[in-house]
Amino acid sequence: MFGLCISGRPLITDFQQVEPNKFVFEAADADNIHELAFFILPGNVLPDEYIACLYASGAPYDDWLLVGSVTQDSPSTISLVRWKKPVGAGSSARFGVSVETRGSSSALTGNTLRSTSFTIDDTKEFARAIATDLFRYLDSFGHSVGQHAMTTLDKWFLRFSSKMERDPEFWKRITNRD
Fold it and tell me: Which residues form the Hikeshi-like N-terminal domain (predicted)?
């Protein structure tokens, strides 16, 4: 019913059913799992009132994180896997799919689950880190970039933050201009 494509690996479709609405798959070399695509296989239908949530856990498989979810209206997702704690080299990971009613989804109510999606604050923190790194890089050339550059970067960050508040996905429309 579901497919999982882990970057650099063959397509996974052979989830093991462990309960009527729960499926699992174990993948080797968990420390090299960073991004994946999760989707409903063609020809399968997920009723409108249901959501399929993909979870991941490293050994000893007691701490699960929400990686992504699909519905009939949105049958695929590409997600980054941000492990809660480091997984050791050569260790395995388990991926679990739970088909749940939308209103009762543990993805929305679970206390021990963490989504891998970025919040506006995460994106602002990321942008500030990029700006700081850029400033330090420019400053490393031996001559001081000066207060003017720092003031300019601060103004840019305020502008960026304002745009993020109005439209969290504005950055997806930015193109590189030569």
Answer: 6-85
d(CA 126, CA 178): 24
The CA distance from 123 to 126, in Å, is: 5
Which residue ranges of the chain lie beneath pLDDT 70? 84-86, 104-122, 136-137, 140-146, 168-178
SS (H, E, C) 7-67: CCCCCECCCEEEECCEEEEEECCHHHCCEEEEEECCCCCCCCCEEEEEEEEECCCCCCEEE
Distance separating alpha carbons of residues 176 and 150, to the nearest angstrom: 23
Residue 110: predicted pLDDT: 36
- Residues making up the chain, counted from first to last: 178
Q: pTM for the whole thing?
A: 0.60
Which run of H or E residues covers position 135?
A: helix 120-139
